[in-house]
C-alpha cells in the first residue's frame, strides 16, 4: 500500500534512498547543503515497502517548485521510483498546491519523460518548455593535444602567446588560503554578486574531502590574477566557477587556466565528459561541442480556481499564432 508523507528536512531521506545519481546536484548531500544554507525544503516521499519515489521542492511565489539555487546545474527527483509511486505522489500534491514547477531538468534524462507522464496521469495540466542551455564536451577518447587541434586558430594562437606570462597551480584538495584567493578574485571580477558564497565554500570543502576538487590559480609576478573551481565526479568534470581580474585581462590568464584544467582532466583524470553548466554565453561554445537543452515543466491543477488565470493565459499564448494566421 502506497503511503505519502511530507517533511521539512532532507534528513528523512538519508538511509531510505539508495542514490545512484551521476550529477552532484541530484543527491541528498547537495540538498542538505542548501537546507543548511537557509533553504526550506518540502520533501514529498511516496513509499511502498522498500520502494520509494521522492521529490525535493520548496514553497515559493504561491506554488511548489524545484529546490535549486544559483550554483545548481540541474534538478531531478531524488528517487524516481516506480511509475505508480510517482503518480500517487503527483495526485497527493493536488491537496497541497495548485501549481508545481520543476526545472532545470535534463533533456536527455529519463526523469523528463517520467515526470510528464506521472503528473499528466495524476490530472495536472502540463506545459513543457526549454528554459536553459547546457554546453558540454564529449572527449571521445581524445588526448588534450588532439582536442586542442580542433579549437579555433585564434584560441590556439592566444594560448601560445600568453601561456608563459602566468604560472599555473592546480590543487586536488581544499586549501583555505587558496579558496580565500579564489573568493577575493571573484569579488573583484566582473562576475555578478552571489547570494550564498558560503554554500559554495562548504560544497568545495566536501568535494575536497572526497578528492574531487580541482581548484586552479594563475599567478603573474607573484600575484593571483585568475581562479577556477572545477570538480571531477566519476567520469565527468564540472566547471563551477571562473573569474579573473579585469585589470589583467591582457594576460588572457583565463584562457591559459582553462587550457591547463582541460589538459589535466582529459590526460590525468581521464574524464569522458566536461560539463560547463547552464547558460548560453558565447565563450562556452569556443570550448564545448554539444549544446543540451534544459527544460521546465509547469504543472497546473485545472480543478482549482487559483490555477484558472494561468491556464487562461497559457491558452491565449497557444492560440495567438493561430489567430494571427487567420
Sequence of strands across the biggest β-sheet:
1-2-3-4-5-12-6-11-10-9-8-7
Share in helix: 25-40%
Helix count from the secondary structure assignment: 10
What value does the average pLDDT take? 93
The overall strand count is 12
Outline the low-pLDDT stretches.
none
| Backbone structural class | alpha+beta
Largest sheet: 12 strands, mixed
Secondary structure topology:
Blueprint: E1 3-7, H1 28-36, E2 41-48, E3 51-60, E4 63-66, H2 83-93, E5 99-106, H3 110-121, E6 125-138, H4 144-148, H5 153-162, E7 167-171, H6 176-188, H7 197-209, E8 213-220, E9 223-233, E10 236-244, H8 253-268, E11 273-278, H9 282-287, E12 290-300, H10 308-325
Parallel strand pairs: 4-5, 10-11
Antiparallel strand pairs: 1-2, 2-3, 3-4, 5-12, 6-11, 6-12, 7-8, 8-9, 9-10
Helix pairs in contact: 2-3, 5-8
Question: How would you characterize this protein structure?
Answer:
The chain has 326 residues and is α+β, with helices and mostly antiparallel strands. It is 35% helix and 30% strand. The protein has helices spanning 28-36, 83-93, 110-121, 144-148, 153-162, 176-188, 197-209, 253-268, 282-287, 308-325; strands at residues 3-7, 41-48, 51-60, 63-66, 99-106, 125-138, 167-171, 213-220, 223-233, 236-244, 273-278, 290-300. The protein has a 12-stranded mixed sheet with strand order 1-2-3-4-5-12-6-11-10-9-8-7, sandwiched between helices. Strand 4, helix 2 (83-93) and strand 5 (99-106) form a beta-alpha-beta unit. The mean pLDDT is 93.
Amino acid at each position: 500500500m502506497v503511503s505519502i508523507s511530507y517533511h521539512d528536512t532532507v534528513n528523512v531521506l538519508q538511509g531510505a534512498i539508495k542514490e545512484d545519481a551521476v550529477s552532484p546536484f541530484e543527491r541528498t548531500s547537495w540538498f542538505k547543503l542548501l537546507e543548511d544554507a537557509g533553504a526550506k525544503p518540502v520533501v514529498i516521499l511516496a513509499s511502498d515497502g522498500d520502494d520509494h519515489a521522492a521529490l525535493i521542492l520548496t514553497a515559493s511565489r504561491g506554488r511548489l517548485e524545484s529546490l535549486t539555487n544559483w550554483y545548481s546545474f540541474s534538478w531531478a527527483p531524488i528517487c524516481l521510483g516506480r511509475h505508480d509511486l510517482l503518480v500517487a505522489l503527483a495526485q497527493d500534491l493536488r491537496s497541497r498546491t495548485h501549481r508545481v514547477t520543476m526545472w532545470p531538468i535534463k533533456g536527455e534524462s529519463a526523469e523528463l519523460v517520467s515526470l510528464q507522464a506521472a503528473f499528466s496521469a495524476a490530472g495536472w495540466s502540463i506545459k513543457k518548455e526549454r528554459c536553459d542551455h547546457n554546453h558540454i564536451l564529449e572527449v571521445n577518447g581524445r588526448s588534450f593535444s588532439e582536442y586542442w587541434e580542433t579549437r579555433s586558430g585564434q584560441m590556439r594562437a592566444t594560448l601560445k602567446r600568453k601561456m608563459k606570462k602566468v604560472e599555473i597551480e592546480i590543487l586536488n584538495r581544499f586549501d583555505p588560503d587558496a579558496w580565500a584567493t579564489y573568493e577575493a578574485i571573484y569579488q573583484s571580477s566582473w562576475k555578478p554578486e552571489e547570494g550564498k558564497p558560503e554554500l559554495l565554500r562548504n560544497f568545495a570543502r566536501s568535494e575536497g574531502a572526497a578528492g574531487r576538487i580541482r581548484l586552479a590559480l594563475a599567478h603573474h609576478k607573484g600575484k593571483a590574477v585568475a581562479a577556477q573551481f572545477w570538480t571531477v565526479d566519476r567520469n565527468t568534470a564540472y566547471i563551477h566557477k571562473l573569474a579573473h581580474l579585469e585589470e589583467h585581462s591582457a594576460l588572457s590568464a583565463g584562457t591559459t587556466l582553462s587550457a591547463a584544467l582541460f589538459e589535466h582532466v582529459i590526460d590525468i583524470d581521464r574524464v569522458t565528459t566536461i560539463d560547463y553548466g547552464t547558460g548560453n554565453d558565447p565563450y562556452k561554445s569556443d570550448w564545448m561541442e554539444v549544446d543540451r537543452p534544459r527544460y521546465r515543466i509547469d504543472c497546473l491543477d485545472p480543478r482549482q480556481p487559483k490555477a484558472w488565470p494561468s491556464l487562461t493565459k497559457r491558452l491565449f499564448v497557444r492560440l495567438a499564432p493561430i489567430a494571427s494566421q487567420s
